[in-house]
Write a structure and sequence with these properties.
It contains three helices and 19 strands. By secondary structure, the protein is mainly beta. The two termini are 59 Å apart. It has three domains: 173 residues, Glucose Permease (Domain IIA); 122 residues, Sandwich (Jelly Rolls), CATH 2.60.120.380; 101 residues, no CATH class. The relative contact order is 0.12. Strands 1, 2, 4, 5, 6, 7, 9 and 10 form an eight-stranded antiparallel beta sheet that branches. The protein has a five-stranded mixed beta sheet with strand order 11-13-18-15-16, with no helix packed on it. Helix content is 3%, strand content 24%. The C terminus is likely disordered. Bound molecules: zinc ion (ZN).
Length: 451
């Protein structure tokens, strides 16, 4: 199983591929790597040959290498594994600067031509100027093209045995900005630093966590009653956030987008993610730091199942709602906010909703008024008189006995048919019902930016 597949002669033969101009801008900060496979396939991989530090010695002064090897080889379960499919993903965000496909992928001799010996491969330039190469990929599995921006963990292709390879594995190679091969591992026979976020142990695997490189991108604003239509690989999407703290057990590889949500009311809110063609998940966050430190809630149904988060929003608080692809999944989606207070704007002539809803007294609703469901009155809900509409009223009190629930709109209840309500207790009860209430519009109407 753990055959030591490797890429014979690659170390010596291939110093020149992909010599695109280095990035003009030279960002200062190093950009560390995750192990370049998916969480799903991670358990299948094992190191077969590290970079040769000289004298057939690896970074740990051991012998897991061969003479002249210029990268790190990882097997993924031999031919069976290759046929099952083993994802190869970007170790960090960057730009594809070279890619090649179409070479035969069942090389066993170590000297099959094509791709300069790398067979089918992808080369990515990262923000710090270094580049990573993913070589010997399966035929026609290369999923990215030159010039494309990729996120950390984004799928690049599948493990294969193309080029100078003796069996299925990935040759992962790191180049400096000046195209010198460099060992991503730090150890007694390799100079620091490590280029892995989590190097792991000798003869084991580096971890899957990407280096966070910035905030998640807030691309739109969402308010009660609105929905936004986006795709998580839209322009401006990022892919740097792999973990959402205690909110989700899964590792994400993006791309991700985020939307700002806020409501002026303290109220129950349901965020719904729908229209999915792939496995996107939904997160309610305290800020666009998206680093897992401020995750309020998550919805992580499998596959393309709709997601929903129900929570009680704090009045005026700004939330960041992130949509992230599981294992690089991308899809268009619709994200909506349904608010217990209803929707502002239309309907309800005379309902100005600016005063506290002091329904606590006559309207025996529990603290939040139970108008979470649309108020299905046929007529505008003017409530001045007893609410005895033909259609059912949402109030907890029996229909027909329902006292006015908008006394504030009319300065009192002197004209109430039932005469049962007294404004007397209102001043003391009102503070117990801090919610404002919006009523009226019975349907969610899509629209961005109207709020
Ligand atoms: Zn190799």
């Amino acid at each position: 199983m753990n055959a030591a597949w490797k890429d014979a002669a690659l170390g010596a033969a291939l110093s020149g591929i992909g010599l695109c101009a280095a990035l003009a801008a030279g960002p200062a900060r190093a950009q560390d790597y995750r192990f370049p496979t998916s969480g799903e396939d991670y358990g299948h991989f094992y190191p077969t040959a590290y970079l040769d530090q000289g004298g057939t010695t690896d970074w740990n002064c051991g012998g897991i290498t061969y003479s002249g090897h210029g990268g790190s080889d990882f097997g993924g379960g031999s031919w069976t594994g290759m046929d099952e499919g083993r994802d190869i993903v970007a170790a960090a965000a960057g730009t594809v600067i070279d890619a090649h496909d179409g070479e035969d992928d069942r090389c066993t001799t170590g000297d099959c031509p094509g791709g300069g010996g790398y067979g089918n491969y992808v080369k990515i330039r990262h923000a710090d100027g270094k580049a990573t190469i993913y070589a010997h990929l399966k035929t026609w599995s290369v999923a990215v093209s030159v010039g494309q921006e990729v996120g950390c963990g984004q799928g690049l292709g599948q493990m294969g045995s193309s080029g100078y390879s003796t069996g299925p594995h990935v040759h992962f190679e790191v180049r400096t900005a000046s195209e010198s091969r460099t060992d991503p591992f730090d150890g007694p026979c390799s100079s620091p630093p490590t280029y892995w976020v989590d190097q792991g142990v000798y003869d084991g695997l580096p971890g899957l966590v990407c280096e966070d490189v910035g905030p998640c991108a807030v691309l739109a604003r969402l308010r009660c009653g609105e929905s936004v239509s986006l795709s998580n690989d839209a322009g401006g999407a990022t892919s740097s956030h792999l973990s959402y703290g205690g909110c989700s057990e899964y590792v994400y590889s993006g791309p991700e987008v985020a939307v700002e949500f806020a409501t002026e009311l303290g109220e129950a809110v349901t965020l719904r993610l729908s229209g999915l063609g792939a496995d996107l998940d939904l997160f309610l966050l305290a800020s666009e730091a998206c680093d897992g430190t401020g995750c309020h809630a998550a919805s992580t149904e499998p596959y393309g199942t709709d997601e929903a988060i129900a929570f009680t929003a704090a009045a005026g608080q700004r939330y960041v709602v992130a949509v992230d692809g599981w294992e690089g999944a991308t899809s268009a989606f619709s994200l909506s906010a349904e608010c217990a207070g209803g929707w502002p704007g239309e309907g309800d002539p005379g309902d100005d909703d600016t005063a506290p809803d002091d329904d606590a007294a006559p309207d025996d609703d529990a603290a939040p008024d139970d108008d979470a469901a649309p108020d299905d009155d046929a007529a505008p809900d003017d409530d001045a008189a007893t609410d005895d509409d033909a259609t059912s009223d949402d109030d907890a009190a029996p229909e027909g006995e329902d006292p006015p629930d908008r006394v504030e709109d009319f300065g009192g209840c002197s004209g109430c048919a039932t005469g049962s309500a007294s404004p007397g207790p209102l001043p003391t009860l009102a503070p117990l019902v801090p919610l404002l209430r919006r009523r009226g519009r019975p349907r969610v109407v899509a629209g961005v930016g109207s709020g």
